[in-house]
Design a protein that fits this description.
Radius of gyration: 13 Å
Number of strands: 0
GO molecular function, one term: structural constituent of ribosome
Strand content: under 5%
Largest sheet: none
Order of helices and strands: HHHH
Family: Belongs to the universal ribosomal protein uS15 family.
Protein name: Small ribosomal subunit protein uS15c
Oligomer: single chain
Structural class: mainly alpha
Subunit structure: Part of the 30S ribosomal subunit.
Main location: plastid
Shape: elongated
Helix content: over 70%
Distance between the termini: 24 Å
């Protein structure tokens, strides 16, 4: 996926969702260890909301790209 990052348009919806997903996974693992880190928990919720809005936009614009992306990133469909 790293080689794809360099060739990928960093402004594309797919890249943004990929980036948010990596940040979300990193924050989630941090919060498993630091249960009382409420500011990070708030940041996680903000990222989840941003990713959800981007996925909703992509699902509305191009359903095929949406399905492909959620299967690649192993994200549940809402």
């Amino acid at each position: 996926m790293v080689k794809e990052e360099k060739q990928e348009n960093r402004g594309s919806v797919e890249f943004q969702v990929f980036s948010f997903t990596n940040k979300i996974r990193r924050l989630a693992s941090h919060l498993e260890l630091q249960k009382k880190d409420f500011s990070s928990e708030r940041g996680l919720r903000r990222l989840l909301g941003k990713r959800q809005r981007l996925l909703a936009y992509l699902a509305k614009k191009n359903r095929v790209r949406y399905k492909k992306l959620i299967s690649q990133l192993d994200i549940r469909e809402k």
